[in-house]
Amino acid sequence: LALKGYQPTLGKAPRNFIIDPTGNYLLVANQNTDNIIIFKRNKLSGLLKNTGKQINIPKPVCLKMIKL
Question: What is residue 4's predicted lDDT score, i.e. its pLDDT?
Fold first, then answer.
């Protein structure tokens, strides 16, 4: 493993993160700012880019993906 950089979570008190099944997105649950931030993930480098999208939800602490 090698350090590639740092990525702010764009919120306070990040509690959990998850990579979607495609590997294209990483979601971060920020408990104290009541949001889940969605980042685009580069599969080759692992670097993240803010999509500008978020889900507003009270006190998210755990993220799970379910198949629908």
Answer: 85
